[in-house]
Amino acid sequence: MSNQSVQTVSTSNDKIKVVLAIAIAIVGVIGFYYLSDKPALVRAGALVAGLAFAVLILWTSSTGRDFLNFAKEAVRETKKVVWPTRSEATQITGIVFAFVLVMAVFLWGTDKTLEFLLYDVILGIRK
């Protein structure tokens, strides 16, 4: 029994729908800026209408459905994230700052040591 994944081949019809959806979304954004002299509600309506129509067209293609399902799953997974408490975030930030300070001192010391060895000991340039 083989567990090979099967990939579906998108038709040219699906590709045309995706391109059309992208074009309509762009037209909605352009309409938002083109209607700059109109009330904000009209501008927002043009933007939302363009994006909504693009999503509807995208939904009719298999590629679009796959992408929208992926987006839904991403949102669902994001809701599962456990954020640190304020004290945990403060402790982690303090540890990062301390590590950066230690690394800065270490790199400065390494630089000065190599500078001394190279210029003073090996080359004897500085006096």
UniProtKB/TrEMBL annotation:
What the entry lists under Pfam families is as follows: SecE (PF00584)
Q: Which keywords does this Swiss-Prot/TrEMBL entry list?
A: Cell membrane, Membrane, Protein transport, Translocation, Transmembrane, Transmembrane helix, Transport
User: Which superkingdom does the taxonomy of this entry point to?
Assistant: Bacteria
Q: Where in the cell is it found?
A: Membrane
Which InterPro entries did the record assign? SecE_bac (IPR005807), SecE_sf (IPR038379), Translocase_SecE/Sec61-g (IPR001901)
Q: What is its main location?
A: membrane
Which residues span the membrane? 18-35, 41-59, 89-109
Entry function = Essential subunit of the Sec protein translocation channel SecYEG. Clamps together the 2 halves of SecY. May contact the channel plug during translocation.
Instruction: Give the family from UniProt.
Output: Belongs to the SecE/SEC61-gamma family.
The record's annotation in HAMAP family points to: SecE (MF_00422)
Can you state the subunit structure given in the record? Component of the Sec protein translocase complex. Heterotrimer consisting of SecY, SecE and SecG subunits. The heterotrimers can form oligomers, although 1 heterotrimer is thought to be able to translocate proteins. Interacts with the ribosome. Interacts with SecDF, and other proteins may be involved. Interacts with SecA.
What protein am I looking at?
Protein translocase subunit SecE
| Organism (species) | Duganella margarita
- Which gene is the coding source of this polypeptide chain? secE
